[in-house]
Write a structure and sequence with these properties.
There is one protein chain. This protein is α+β, with helices and mostly antiparallel strands and 742 residues long. Helix content is 51%, strand content 12%. The two termini are 41 Å apart.
């Protein structure tokens, strides 16, 4: 143990300055160079062997190369008598934490200090070094108001040893531990994802918020609710807490605090530029120039006058949405939600408000012979002002390049940060065989109807497209998604041709996201490849965060693995990108049901039913929520309506009858289902017999369900109706059969 007066190497300890999960800091005297230094003594056992010590030394050497007036210098790393320590520049003054403890700072001081911190981050990021633990306690301010940022990069080197509610470092014991201090950690950091410089930008936004308001954006005291708030809740606008904050500074803070890293500032340099603008009298960052970070494409009008060409106009709309979604800095509303505005009489500002977007794309498509002309205009939602309009025309063979050109132009006009790789993907547009492409568009048109007849027609057209041009990856990707939809809805065996089609599409074009999306779902629901599924979902969302279905299915993976906060955040993101689809709030309610939060279960169901009063899964979730609260009359009513809308969920009524004590009615439904059970009915029969207390019959149907590889099967581990079966050895055998974590 180190105490005042001790000597370590040639450093004499003068006083203790502070400590935490990453070690204890002392002011010490360098007796060789006759100067004061800061000595950080690492926790005992942190570097357990010479390999760890060598790695730390290499990383410390990298940090020592940072040479910026706003960054405290790392001088040395050494060990003596079993004590590992870092020697750093000693900075006299007070921490920013001490400054903000007295309340909000004047805006001029916020901008001055924030600018200096952003300059330090910018320099470090240029050297590929991320702080990972930026907070007011790691920022020193000297008597002249100059900033020194401490502990750059140390969160990567040192595993914290303590977690103290909302203020201490967060650590996980498994490999790939999460490092940082909870209130200042970006959502992706809390979720254990690979982080980049944008995590520091989120932390800077939190520091700016604290300087502006005197409090952190999320003030929960316990770590679990604090993490949940950071992942899912919007921060209260700073001006609501301090009216002295200018709209421009508020805009900078809120952009830095965006939960999705793609919607945040993309570099410290961007933050720095906006803070510098604020320091200029009369400037108004985020006020004078349009702030467009989210966009929606209205269904393109079919100017051909031929109703038979609607499939083409819808296909062009979907292609434009798909291409815009490749720009990760933009939030792009999905096709499913946008198609509900076809032929709408609503005003553009009203639509924008419903979708919570900054801008709309309105346009038309005209196909004459072999030529396609698309006209698009960009409209700022808040003012209904037309910001840009252009018309594009190409031969049908070049329609994909046309769509990419429009998306690139829109990205430039809204000042979205389009990365070089995104520009490359947009520019990588193939020519198409016009006849095959027509069949492909018709196939997608019918699949999107989500009806049995639509699935049949859609798959037929996509197979036709493959026959016409077997070198085109798009029809294969369409087949993969189509078979996947049928596999989820009714027949799991369809995931076998779905996988074959996805692999063929990727053989022809490894970058095709539709095929990669289908393959990720197949890994989760059919292959039961848990590691592969997680990797596939994370790669997809890293490349394109505007995929609501991917967020939703990834949510189910996280829920299955017990990572509930992350699951809720992903499902909420699906609803943000696709706000008019009732499935996502219904699924979120379903997940709350699994964790015993029955009021939230009912809230999710009601949100789904507001969007579609006859939505069967909304009615299903409503019923299970009522049943858990003992409100059996309401539960039976909801499930009766669900069964009337969609007979495929009739089993739910049988289970509800069973738990409500109406055994005869439950047995009657079970008897009817047994005559010709669909794959989903095998699951339902297992639930009914569990509710009736007949475990042998329940396991018989669960065994059949597993043999069919019914897509819900892995979730038996946390599905409430199966709780009575969990102690039975047969249940554990089923879990092992699916290679699920025990």
């Amino acid at each position: 143990m180190v105490t005042t007066g001790d000597t370590i190497s040639h450093y004499r300890i003068l006083e203790k300055l502070g400590g935490g999960g990453m070690g204890v800091v002392y002011r010490a005297r360098d007796q060789h160079l006759d100067r004061d230094v800061a000595l950080k003594v690492l926790p005992t056992g942190m570097l357990a062997d010479e390999t760890a010590r060598s790695r730390f030394r290499r990383e410390a050497l990298t940090l020592s190369r940072l040479n910026h007036p706003g960054i405290a210098v790392v001088h040395d790393f050494d060990s003596e008598n079993g004590v590992d320590f870092l020697t750093m520049e000693y900075v006299a003054g007070e921490t920013l934490a001490a400054k903000v403890a007295g309340g909000p700072l004047p805006e001029e001081a916020i901008i001055t200090l924030g600018t200096q911190i952003a300059e330090a981050l910018d320099d470090a990021h240029e050297h590929k070094i991320i702080h990972r633990d930026l907070k007011p306690g790691n920022v020193m301010v000297n008597s002249k108001g100059r900033v020194k940022v401490l502990d750059f990069g140390l969160a990567k080197l040192v595993k914290p040893t303590e977690v103290d509610a909302a203020t201490a470092s967060l650590a996980e014991t498994q490999a790939g531990a999460v490092m940082g201090t909870v209130p200042y950690m970006a959502p992706e950091q809390l979720q254990g994802k690979v982080v980049d410089a944008r995590a520091d930008i989120y932390a800077l936004g939190t520091v700016l918020y604290e300087m502006a308001t005197g409090q952190r954006p999320f003030r929960e005291k316990q770590s679990s609710p604090l993490i949940a708030a950071i992942l899912t809740e919007p921060p209260q606008p700073p001006r609501e807490l301090n009216r002295q904050v200018s709209p421009g500074l508020e805009a900078v803070i809120l952009k830095a605090l965006e939960k999705n890293p793609h919607e945040r500032y993309q570099s410290a340099r961007e933050v720095l530029e906006d803070l510098r603008r604020l320091s200029v009298p009369g400037s108004a960052v985020g006020v004078q120039r349009p702030k467009i970070q989210s966009i929606a494409v209205l269904p393109l009008a079919n100017l051909s006058g031929d109703p038979q060409q609607e499939y083409f106009a819808d296909g062009m709309t979907e292609e434009l949405i798909t291409n815009l979604a490749k720009i990760s800095a933009l939030k792009v509303i999905s096709r499913t939600s946008m198609m509900q505005y076809k032929s709408t009489k609503k005003s553009l500002p009203q639509i924008a408000e419903e979708l919570n977007v900054d801008a709309l794309i309105e346009g038309s498509v005209l196909r004459e012979g072999g030529q396609v002309r698309i006209t698009a205009q960009l409209i700022q939602a808040s003012t209904d002002q037309h910001l840009w309009a252009e018309s594009y025309q190409r031969d049908l063979r070049g329609v994909l390049a046309l769509q990419s050109e429009i998306a690139s132009a829109i990205g430039d006009k809204v000042r979205a940060a389009v990365t070089p790789s995104e520009r490359a993907r947009l520019a990588r547009a193939r020519t198409v065989n016009p006849e095959a492409y027509e069949s492909y568009l018709k196939g997608k048109f019918y699949l999107n109807k989500m009806t049995p007849e639509g699935f049949e027609k859609g798959l037929a057209y996509l197979k036709q497209a493959v026959e016409i041009d077997p070198t085109d990856p798009l029809p294969y990707a369409g087949l993969a998604l189509g078979y996947s939809l049928i596999g989820h809805e009714a027949i799991p065996d369809n995931l076998i041709p779905a996988k074959a089609a996805a692999l063929k599409a990727l053989e022809l074009d490894p970058t095709l996201l539709d095929a990669r999306e289908a393959l990720a779902e197949i890994k989760l629901y059919w292959d039961w490849d848990w590691t592969g599924a997680e990797e596939a979902f994370e790669r997809l969302l890293a490349q394109n965060p505007n995929l609501p279905e991917v967020h939703a299915h990834y949510s189910w993976y996280l829920e299955l693995m017990g990572r509930v906060d992350g699951a809720h955040a992903e499902m909420k993101r699906a609803s943000v990108l696709d706000p008019l689809t009732p499935l996502w709030p219904a699924w979120q309610g379903w997940q709350f049901w699994k964790t015993g939060q029955y009021d939230k279960t009912l809230d999710g169901a009601r949100k789904a039913l507001e969007l579609n009063p006859d939505f069967p899964w909304g009615l299903y979730v409503l019923g299970v929520g009522y049943a858990e609260k003992g409100m059996y009359e309401q539960a039976i009513s909801a499930h009766q309506k669900a069964a009337g809308v969609s007979p495929t969920v009739r089993w739910a009524l049988g289970y509800t009858y069973a738990v409500a004590g109406q055994r005869e009615a439950a047995q009657k439904i079970a008897t009817e289902l047994i005559r010709k059970p669909l794959p989903m009915d095998t699951w339902g029969l297992a639930e009914i017999y569990t509710g009736l207390g007949d475990k042998d019959e329940a396991f018989r149907w669960l065994d059949r369900c597993a043999a069919l590889r019914f897509t819900w099967m892995p979730w038996i581990t946390n599905e409430p109706p199966f709780k009575p079966l969990r102690p039975d050895p047969r249940f554990q055998a089923l879990v092992r059969r699916m290679n699920l974590p025990q």
